[in-house]
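Minutes, project check-in
Item: structure for the 111-residue chain
Input as provided by the requester:
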Amino acid sequence: MPMELPPCPECGSTYTYEMDALLVCPECGHEWSAAAEDTKVIRDSVGNPLADGDTVTVIKDLKLGGTSSSVKVGTKVKNIRLVDGDHDIDCKIPGVGQIGLKSQFVKKVTK
């Protein structure tokens, strides 16, 4: 059984192929490193890579499921922890408690 290659990260084409140490998409011409597929990089809403311990800011009001409360835009969240799954950030927000956030709704705070 042949090894299944990942789809192109640019256009989503499933016709990728290997060329030396690179993966190539014949439809859009995008080339990327096969080694990069091993480590998933989680990025914020503007494309900055996130890491454990970073501080982020919430970029839109987020309604909390099962409650009438929400996390307001501009809320600063310190010491995040990256996890696998749909909600890829675990954190503790003062006044709310332990919560999972999606990286698409936060922006990294640069020092």
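Outcome recorded: The longest strand covers residues 89-93.
No further action items on this chain.
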